[in-house]
Automatic annotation (TrEMBL), chain A:
Transmembrane segments: none annotated. The lineage of its organism: Bacteria, Bacillati, Actinomycetota, Actinomycetes, Kitasatosporales. Gene3D superfamilies: 3.40.47.10. This is Actinorhodin polyketide putative beta-ketoacyl synthase 2. Keywords: Acyltransferase, Transferase. InterPro entries: Beta-ketoacyl_synthase, Ketoacyl_synth_C, Ketoacyl_synth_N, PKS_Beta-ketoAc_synthase_dom, Thiolase-like. Pfam families: ketoacyl-synt (PF00109), Ketoacyl-synt_C (PF02801).
TrEMBL record, chain B:
SMART domains: PKS_KS (SM00825). Coiled coil: none annotated. Belongs to the thiolase-like superfamily. Beta-ketoacyl-ACP synthases family. Pfam families: ketoacyl-synt, Ketoacyl-synt_C. Residues 2-416 form the Ketosynthase family 3 (KS3) domain. It comes from the Bacteria. Signal peptide: none annotated. This is Actinorhodin polyketide putative beta-ketoacyl synthase 1. Keywords: Acyltransferase, Transferase. It comes from Streptomyces hiroshimensis.
From TrEMBL, chain C:
Residues 3-81 form the Carrier domain. Keywords: Phosphopantetheine, Phosphoprotein. It comes from Streptomyces hiroshimensis. The keyword Nucleus does not apply. This is Actinorhodin polyketide synthase acyl carrier protein. The keyword Phosphoprotein applies. SUPFAM superfamilies: ACP-like. InterPro entries: ACP-like_sf, PKS_PP-bd, PP-bd_ACP, Ppantetheine_attach_site. The lineage of its organism: Bacteria, Bacillati, Actinomycetota, Actinomycetes, Kitasatosporales.
Length: 417, 422, 87
């Protein structure tokens, strides 16, 4: 069988997919160890917006990545043709591939692919091109606008930079899409492509992009960075939008071991996605079902899960619904739950992959990072929310949840190698 | 046991007619739907031709509230979903909603709506700090278009896996490929799969003007899309949508469903070469075709018809002609190859699905749609491109391909399952 | 209207397309092919748009692709500038 696209699973439905490289660009840390240190220390990346004058807008905070010099990492050739989100994605991919010890000649041609999720496109870039079009005319629009904007840009640019010619894709599913990208990477591996670079990175912190995020009605108007995005808190008032995310190297385990991989962070053991019913249908929301299906896919029972990385919307009714789903699956207070994304803001397609990376570091170091809010959790949620200090504990498995606006629910289970 | 996937329902909204039947009539008559742009004043632009669809939301049965809620690209997708669901005859009430998913392709999603909102909020580009007082509540959905597959999911009652596949101009092919994979692996039993794009707007026109990818045949819009012709000078921007009901074959057969075609093979590759440029040799597309044939377990000679990407740019048509020769060998010269973009233009992420609809209908009716406007073939494009006139012939196995910015190269094989056709 | 120099070409290329780290574009680049300097057709198209804005001449697409070196591009642009001045 020579096909790597067998709609049949060439590597086998039960072939293990492992994560062998991590690249992180987050508001509270660039690079895996800097980010992880910040998460354990409770250092936030949320601060007042500095890219533009936000004084006229209802909200004023963002999880910005301020200490990132794209030219230093990428050289200048790519700068005129890339949005800030793509620069972050390219650097995260560079780091992930370096971490995994992968170069273009590691595997035969067509054996390495790219699957990224993207929720916002190259929005800062496109805002500038809209301005040129409408204030100066069509002749002033950049030749790069035709691809710097579209949702497939990160997949295409990563593929070109690293000569990855295998099956590739770009998925959109708001904040849940990043987990779908990991799920699709595993699917692609099972169909016969041994290595897939996968994850998500987003950014839209130009004035138009920022204010468009406010239009969703869920961004907090709080002004104190430490008291703004409070998942599962009684004081939750919405979320803070951020930028960044994570790119991972996912591999067929046998192929990874055969090439003498440096480390295996863990296995992408389970994945499932569901969608909430139409508003007013009277049917129950579907997050619980996604979590249960991901556990079943991993061959695990709820009692086997050591920690849940929650979606943590920071909106009371959404937090309540997630808490209810978690309690329904695990029992009230029966599993530690955490939402370290309170330190970065919500990163759209980057949120899920960053949580998966964080879960893998939890497994590696035997510690659950806290939800840094310090605010009381409503009793009714029935959650064992890890707060205050990191909780030392052996972590073998983690469930990561992500939800996207309008009803996307995705769940990933990772397990120590 | 391998699960097989079949198309049991089709919905199309394409330029030149409304609904699947009018779409097929246009193709088989060899008529073109490319015209001078009417949606806005295109005078300042280099390319002023497009294939606009006659789409009337009220006539489609959308309520005033739905019309306000859904933007044009979403309306197209939902209208096609409704047609496909009705066409399939599947009683969705009898299917577990968790076993029904959605994979919707779109390249630029709500670009047109984004631009409309921008003009108000940025005062036509005069304000970098856009005015929040003019912020539309829908603006988030235009920025992050998850609402498009959401509306499709709600229209079909899907509560299984739902996503948007956005691989640029191969989105429409890849979204169906994605849906096929989900049914094959057992993640769903039914997928609403397809694509929608309504990109005819100043900003999108300007994008393609800048890289000179669109035609300048502005004085002859009806004949502006000229795939494989020596005089071709770029593609014609278009809009449209096609959606399908995909089902697991045994279940479809058991309920006595009409079956248009089985998707027997699908593969995609990246050229890892250039965001917009193509290497002349067509190697990666050839590899995608080879893999799709391989998965279908068929020899290239079994293919009765090749639906080309055929965008009508200089580089594309040569690139894929080279790819066909590598992947199909001598059969490339014998098999009819055509591009329906000559008639309905290039609707970016949607066209891959619209072309799959054309392929399924070609199998159903045993007719190969033509390449319109092909009078003087490019000497480097030396295959049988079915010029001008549709051809009645047996069509059981079809290859369709797509190529897009980012380097995506995709291929799919559709076949009439045994016993479906006399 | 001013004529274009090799330094103008260098500056416009850098502005429109950056510089490939592995390539030295300082020194005399007049006769080095653009692809050797790390610039593809998109970089040249973007540069042509900038040239139009600075020098007021439109470089026809088919002539742009024929110009393989900075010197060829300079000759092409300056020819157009002279033509425009004479008209």
């Amino acid at each position: 069988m020579t096909s790597k696209d067998g709609l049949n699973d060439v590597n086998g439905r039960n072939a293990r997919t492992v994560i062998t490289g991590i690249g992180i660009t987050a508001p509270n840390g660039l690079g895996t160890e800097a980010f992880w240190k910040a998460v354990l220390a409770g250092h936030t990346g949320i601060a007042p917006v500095t890219r533009f004058d936000a004084s006229r807008y209802a909200a004023s905070l963002a999880g910005q990545i301020d200490d990132f010099d794209a030219a230093e990492h990428l050289g200048s050739r790519l700068l005129p043709q890339t949005d800030p989100s793509t620069r972050l994605a390219l650097v995260a991919a560079d780091w992930a591939l370096t971490d995994a010890g992968v170069s273009p000649d590691t595997l035969p041609d067509y054996d390495m692919g790219v699957v990224t999720s993207n929720a916002l496109g190259g929005f800062d870039f496109t805002h500038r091109e809209f301005d040129k079009l409408w204030s100066k005319g069509p002749d002033f629009v950049s030749v790069y606008e035709s691809f710097a904007w579209f949702y497939a840009v990160n997949t295409g640019q990563i593929s070109i930079r690293h000569k990855l010619r295998g099956p590739s894709a770009a998925l959109v599913g708001e904040q849940a899409g990043g987990l779908d990208a990991l799920g699709h990477a595993r699917r692609t591996i099972r169909r016969g492509t041994p290595l897939v670079v996968a994850g998500g990175v987003d950014s839209a912190l130009d004035p138009w992009g920022y204010v468009s995020q406010l239009a969703g009605g869920r961004v907090t108007t709080a002004t104190d960075p430490a008291r703004a995005y409070l998942p599962f808190s009684a004081d939750a008032s919405g979320y803070v939008p951020g930028e960044g995310g994570a790119i991972l190297v996912t591999e067929d385990e046998a192929s990874a071991r055969e090439r003498g991989v440096q480390q295996i962070y863990g296995e992408l053991a389970g994945y499932a996605a569901t969608f909430d019913p139409a508003p007013g249908s009277g049917r129950p929301p579907a997050l619980r079902r996604a979590a249960e299906a991901a556990l079943a896919d991993a061959g695990l029972a709820p009692g086997d899960i050591d920690v849940v990385f929650a979606d943590g919307a920071g909106v009371p009714e959404l937090d309540a619904a997630e808490a209810e789903a978690i309690s329904a699956v695990f029992g009230a207070g029966a599993v530690p739950v955490t939402a370290p994304k309170a330190l970065t803001g919500r990163l759209y397609s980057g949120g899920g992959p960053l949580d998966v990376a964080t879960a893998l570091l939890s497994i590696r170091d035997g510690v659950i990072p806290p939800t840094p809010t310090g605010a009381p959790v409503p009793e009714a949620y029935g959650l064992d929310l890890v707060q205050g200090a990191p909780r030392d504990r052996r972590v073998r498995t983690a469930l990561v949840l992500a939800r996207g606006r309008h009803g996307f629910n995705s769940a990933v289970v990772v397990r120590g190698a | 046991m391998t699960r097989r996937v079949v198309i049991t329902g089709i919905g199309v909204r394409a330029p030149g007619g409304s609904g699947t039947k009018e779409f097929w009539d246009l193709l088989t008559a060899g008529r073109t739907a490319t015209r001078r742009i009417s949606f806005f004043d295109a005078a300042p632009f280099r390319s002023r031709v497009a294939a606009e669809a006659d789409f009337f939301p009220e006539a489609e049965g959308f309520s005033p509230r739905e019309i306000r809620r859904m933007d044009r690209a979403t309306q197209f997708a939902v209208a096609c979903t409704r047609e496909a669901v009705a066409d399939s005859g599947l009683e969705f009430a009898g299917v577990d909603p968790y076993r029904v998913g959605v994979s919707l392709g779109s390249a630029v999603a709500s670009a047109t709506s984004l631009e409309n909102e921008y003009l108000v909020m940025a005062d036509k580009g005069r304000e970098w700090l856009v005015d929040p007082d003019y912020l539309s509540p829908h603006m988030f959905d235009y920025l992050s278009p998850g609402v498009m597959p959401a509306e499709v999911a709600w229209a079909a009652g899907a509560e299984g896996p739902v996503t948007m596949v956005s691989d640029g101009c191969t989105s429409g092919l890849d979204a169906v490929g994605y849906g096929v994979q989900l049914i094959r692996e057992g993640s769903a039993d039914v997928m609403i799969a397809g694509a929608s794009d309504t990109p005819i707007s100043p900003i999108v026109l300007a994008c393609f003007d800048a890289i000179k990818a669109t035609t300048t045949r502005n004085d002859d819009p009806e004949h502006a899309s000229r795939p494989f012709d020596a005089s071709r000078n770029g593609f014609v921007l278009a809009e449209g949508s096609a959606m399908f009901v995909l089902e697991e074959y045994e279940a479809a057969k058991a309920r006595g469903a009409q079956i248009y075609a089985e998707v027997t093979g699908y593969a995609t590759r990246c050229n890892a070469y250039h965001m917009t440029g193509l290497k002349k040799d067509g190697r990666e597309m050839a590899e995608a075709i080879r893999a799709a044939l391989d998965e279908s377990r068929i020899d290239p000679t079994v293919v009765d018809y090749v639906n080309a990407h055929g965008s009508g740019t200089k580089q594309n048509d040569r690139h894929e002609t080279a790819a066909f020769k590598i992947a199909l060998g001598q059969h490339a010269y014998d098999v009819p190859v055509s591009s329906i973009k000559s008639m309905v233009g290039h609707s970016l992420g949607a066209i891959g699905s619209i072309e799959i609809a054309a392929c399924a209908l070609a199998i159903k009716h045993d007719v190969v749609p033509p390449t319109a406007n092909l009078h003087t073939p490019d000497p480097e494009c030396d295959l049988d491109y079915v010029p001008l006139t549709a051809r009645e012939q047996r069509v059981d196995s079809v290859l369709t391909v797509g190529s897009g910015f980012g380097g995506f190269q995709s291929a799919m094989i559709l076949r009439a399952p045994e016993g479906v056709k006399a | 209207m001013a004529h274009m120099t090799v330094d103008d070409v260098r500056r416009i290329l850098v502005e429109c397309a950056g510089v490939d780290d592995s390539i030295d574009i300082n020194g005399d680049i007049s006769d080095r092919p653009f692809d050797e300097l790390g610039y593809d057709s998109l970089a040249l198209m973007e540069s042509a748009a900038q040239i139009k804005q600075e020098f007021g001449v439109v470089v026809p697409d088919d002539e742009l692709v024929e110009a393989e070196t900075p010197r060829a591009l300079i000759d092409l642009v300056n020819g157009l500038v002279t033509e425009a001045a004479a008209a």
